[in-house]
Amino acid sequence: MNKQLLFYGQAEFESTKTLFHSLGYEMISLSFFLDDVKDLSKFTLCQHGVYVIDVSVLGGGYYNINAIQSIGESIFRLFQNKEIIYICDDKYFDKLRYELRYCFENFIDIKDKYNISFEALPTPVIITDKQHSKITDFTTEEFEVFFKSFRESLYGHEKFKDDFYEIAKSFRLFNKIGEHKVLSLFLLGESGVGKTEVARALYKCLGGKENLAKVNFGNYSNEFSLSSLIGSARGYIGSEDGEIFIRVRNTDVGVILIDEFEKSNATLFNFFLDVLESGKMVSSQALEIDINGFIIIFTSNIPKEDFPVRISPELRSRFDYKGHFTRLSNQDKRKYVEYRINSIIKKYNEHYNESLETDVVNYFIRTIPVDKYENMRDINKKIKMEFVKYIENVKSSQQNKGILTPNVLNILL
C-alpha cells in the first residue's frame, strides 16, 4: 500500500507543477499508463528519479465507478519499489478517498505535506477586443435569413437541419437570459459524409472572412495534450498560448470545430466539461476567452455504438445534440457538384477577369458519375480534375491563349 495521496485545489494546479518542477521531479498523468496497460515499457520510465503521477483521471468519470478500485490496485502495483508521489484534484477527494482506500494509507492536502502556501494565481484577464459574429447577436429576421442560407449551403442531412433549427432557436432564447452559454453538437459518422461541412457552412453563413477555428485532435492523445491545447505553465521554457486560444483569436466567427474528438483523453474531456458549463476557456497563462454564444462542433469517425464507451457519461450529457451522419444520396451529391462548380466559376472569373458562364454546370453533372463515389472528398477531387480539363479545352479552342494548370487552380480553391 502507498503511504499517501496528495490533493491540490484546481486554482493551485499551476503552482503545484512549478513546485515539483523546481524540485527536479517529472510530472505525468496516470492516463499515459492507462492508455495501454500491456505496454510495460511505459512503466520503465519511472526506474530512475522521482516521478509525480496525477491520478485525477480516475475521478473524472471516464472510468466506471465500480472499476476504479480494481484499476487503481492493478496499476499502482506496477509502481511498487519506485519513487512515486501521487497527487489528485481535490474535487475528487471524497470519491477517491473511498475507492482507493486499499491503495493509500493517508489522503492529505499537498500544502500540509510540504508546509507551504501557494501564491494565488493572478486574476484572469478577459479578452474582449475580438468581435465574433454569433447567432445570438442576430435579430429574429436576421436569424431566419441566416438559417435559410445555411440550409442551402449544406447538402443532404435534412433531419439534422430541422433539428438544428429548433435547437438553435432554443439556444438563442436561453442564452439571452444567461441559462445556456455554449451550443454543443457532437456529430458521428464515417469520413467524408459532411460532418466538418456543418462547421464550414456555419462559418460561411455567419460572414466569416478570416479563418475557421479548427483543432484536429488526431495529435492530442498523449499526456501533454492539455498543455498543447491551452499552453504551457508559467515558468516553463517555451511557455505560450495553446492552439485553441490562437485559433479562436484568429477567427471572426463564433464557431469552433473540434475534429476527431475521440482521439483525445480524459484530461481534455474534463477541460471541455468546464468550457461547456462556464462559457469560458482559461489558458495556462491565466487568460480567459469568453465564448458565450459560441457553437462548438465535435466530430468523430467512431461507430455510434462506440459513442457511450469512448466518451464519458458526464460529457455525453453536456452535448446539446448528438447526431449520426450517413452517406448522401446521389441526388444530394449532384446538388453538391452544382454548388461547387458555381463557386469555382465565380472565383475563377474574379481572379482572371474571365466570363465563364454558370450554364456549364450541367456539363459537369453529366461528366462526374457521383454514384461511383461514397466520400465527398473524392467527389471534390474529381470536380477539380474535370474543371482543369474543361479550362484546358476552352483555352485550347481559343487558339491557345493560355492554359490553366492544376497549380493555378489551387489559387482559386
Automatic annotation (TrEMBL):
User: Which keywords are on file for this protein?
Assistant: ATP-binding, Hydrolase, Nucleotide-binding, Protease
One of this protein's GO BP terms? proteolysis
Q: Which domain of life is it from?
A: Bacteria
Identify the residues that the record assigns to the AAA+ ATPase domain, covering every copy. 181-329
Question: InterPro entries given for it?
Answer: AAA+_ATPase, ATPase_AAA_core, ClpA/B, ClpA_ClpB, P-loop_NTPase, Sigma_54_int_dom_ATP-bd_1
Q: Which GO terms describe its molecular function?
A: ATP binding; ATP hydrolysis activity; peptidase activity
Pfam families reported in the protein's UniProt record: AAA_2 (PF07724)
Record carries keyword Nucleus? no
- What GO cellular-component annotations does this UniProt entry give? cytoplasm
Q: Which Gene3D superfamilies match?
A: P-loop containing nucleotide triphosphate hydrolases (3.40.50.300)
Protein known as? ATP-dependent Clp protease ATP-binding subunit
Organism ancestry: Bacteria, Pseudomonadati, Bacteroidota, Bacteroidia, Bacteroidales
